[in-house]
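User: I need a structural model of DUF951 domain-containing protein from Hydrogenoanaerobacterium saccharovorans for a docking pre-check later this week. Nothing fancy, just the predicted structure tokens so I can convert them on my end. Input:
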Amino acid sequence: MDVRVGDILQMKKQHPCGASRFLVLRSGMDFKLKCEGCGHEVMVPRAKAEKNIKKIFREEHNL
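Assistant: Understood. Predicted structure tokens for DUF951 domain-containing protein:
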């Protein structure tokens, strides 16, 4: 799955604050995600995160 830094992920499960959208701060074997609701940052293993992604929002830059 192609997930890049700066993407916003719509997850299947919500964060305890109620938000289900996360900003990708780092990608690799783990993802560092920032909750769009409360700003909490979490590290999630890639396999677990990819299983829970519902939709990826990406801004396309035309050069």
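Before docking, keep this in mind: The two ends are 24 Å apart (CA to CA).
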